[in-house]
Amino acid sequence: MHPMVKPALRRAWRERQTVQFGITPAHAVVVGPVDTATGSFLDLLDGTRGLALLREEARSLGLPDGRADALVDRLWAAGLLDDSTAGGRAAEALRNRKVELDRLRADLASLSITHRDPGAAMERLAARRTARVQVRGAGRVGAAVASALSASGVGRVDVLDSGCTEPWDVAPGGLPAESVGERRDVAARLLVRRSAPGRSVRAAGSGTRTAADPDGAEEGAADDAPGGWAAERPERADERAAAVGGGGAGLSLVIVAPRDGLAAYVPDPASAERWIATGTPHLYAGVVEATGVVGPLVLPGGTACAGCLTEERTAREPGWPLMLAQWRSGRRASVTPACDLGLATTVAGLTAAHALSFLDGELPASTGARWEITLPLLDWRSERIAPHPRCPCGAAGEQEGEGMAAPGAPHDTMVR
Length: 416
What we know:
This protein is an alpha/beta fold. It folds into two domains: 3-85, Alpha-Beta Complex (Outer Surface Protein A, domain 3), CATH 3.90.930.60; 129-397, NAD(P)-binding Rossmann-like Domain (Rossmann fold). Helices cover 34% and strands 16% of the residues. The protein has 15 helices and 14 strands. It has an eight-stranded mixed beta sheet with strand order 8-7-6-9-10-11-12-13. Strands 2-3-4-14 form a four-stranded mixed beta sheet, with no helix packed on it. Helix 4 (88-95) crosses helix 7 (120-128), helix 6 (105-114) packs across helix 7 (120-128) and helix 8 runs parallel beside helix 9 (184-195).
């Protein structure tokens, strides 16, 4: 173990013998009393020393025997320490990929705050490289989500869409202006590849991955390797998914972010049947008529699904199925979507954050719930979605999970 005070938590003296690590109440910790020798010892916890050397340094500072171990134990329990060598083989492999890790250091710092155990941040960052996410839609929301996930270290991001890029699909962080007129699947492929950390594109027009790989992987390596990318037309992807045993086989998460936000606001239960059957988590997101939606994140058999949404809305509005059939008829397919760039970017960012939280082992607030935001006031509001007893997904028979604890004030840890 090489203890290191988490550098992402800023340090400030509250008064002469009390130190606060962190600014925000959600993660701040107060440590005290801290005398001069103890303060000097805290400066040595930078990840470059093992416990044996730290004990020697503590003695040289005049601290009694056993004090170094006691300090490390207390700081560890308070969630203030990381371990610069922890995380297992996958984490060590990532440490050796300097270009990739440098791109991800800000993400690593954030994970070190949200995950208290030493080494947990690097372990989760390394685990992202093994995840595979499918983004269905390459419009202003979907393309930006795919780009963000790829840039955040997700190992493989498949983007499914059809047709050619339109001028109104272009967005910062999403499809670039030069992709207008190109097939969306090709444009999405290049976007995801260029966004991936540690990668350099040498043959932008080719369909083969080109990478500068510190681990020595050859150019054109198989797309199934960690850090890969892919983008396909929906019909081709569906054929390949069926061939491997269902639409969700091998996927960590499916994100439904259609260019026409109607399919995210009122998702079709039939389109999610194979994800329900294979137990594949899926998250809806999009913008429709200047309203952005994120959620629900569906955990098949455990939380409300698209079918539950439909049953609940129909119970409240008997005319809902008739109106929905008209909206889905396709007669307005040529109308430019009302998708404000700022709103689309906001929805894409929140969607990516919720997806990453889930991939990192948490249950974000979109689990079994929907978040909505509407122009021009832009007030976020959430709605809990209960599993419907008439829906065949079976979630209504499951017990509701416990809610997550709300952030509180900084907690104290006394170092004696």
